[in-house]
Write the structure tokens for this entry.
Amino acid sequence: MKKTDSPLISVIIPCFNLEKVIGKCIDSIVNQTYKNLQIIVVNDGSLDNSKSIIDTYAKSDSRIMPIHQGNGGVGCAYNQGLKAAIGEYIYILDGDNYVDLDFLETLLCRSIEDKCDVVVCDYCLENYCDGQYVHFGSLEYPALKMYGKEEIATCLFDMYKKYIWQSPCNKLYKSCLLKNLYFEENRNYMMIVDSDFNIRLLNRINSVVTINQPLVHYVQYDLDFRKQITSMWKYRYESRALECEERLFHYLINYFEAVGDDKKIDRLEEITNYFVGRFLKIAQVLFLDKRIIGKVRKQELRYLNNKIQLLFDNKKITYIPYRILYNMIKNKRWMLLRVIYVVLSYCQGYLPRLFKMMKAG
């Protein structure tokens, strides 16, 4: 890359109780092939040895700016990093993840060459256990160039369904896009803090390029802390999930309504079916979570019943299994629903099409 094409990239790394993995994360940034970096590490009130580790790195590399604060949540940590960032580009990497050493150079080159607002890459998915990083999958998307809001809208929901759009960790942003745009700090929305931010960002974006390379390593480290990933997989009901999904549903509906291309009706139908499936998944978790006593379960079911009828019109639910389960909830067929959900939980490997609605996300 030419020296004249070497803009400053601000890298924001939030950290909370990540003493076992924060070093690998920081190493993957300080050793990037692209060197013109401002590295902001936000220690969000860690109770372990994270603060000491961060300070040690800061003493050995002048590009590192440590910020230590009381625990304000991941949204607050992101925002402190954004407020301190001075680069022409911004990259955000959770402290339990890491990236390939040519990650920033690869994305920056594409941003400059293709003159785009946001560059997006693929993920490697890994578990961290007893000091080992174990690969278990990937999230991939084809290499595309999208210019103009209508072109972006054509692919956006597909990227969302495939979990490519939600996280900031696989994106390099032009910093001008993020001016006065901040992450949600209300902990009630912690489960969707990434998705919430990137969906609200859509109205500011006019170009997106995706590169079909898995350059980010998305690590499952602290499963309790990362409830947005694990709560659905472990059958642990989270009452705030309904409000979170409702918020994302409205954001996406409003975005596609505003774009108003010739495929708007089909796209709105697709979004409706997708979020009905998300609500049905929450219902399944509610039935299968053994921690919930009967009285609380009935109360939550009534709330879910009211919410699902308020949000969704039965006539717009075109996927038949969803419509059947939706009507069972609407008609309060709780016992039959419980039987169905229990059977589906045991038949995941044998009924992939029906179980599609049960996938986590």
Summary: The beta strands are 9-15, 37-44, 64-69, 89-92, 98-99, 118-129, 132-139, 144-147, 171-174, 207-220. Residues 43 and 68 are 5 Å apart (CA to CA).
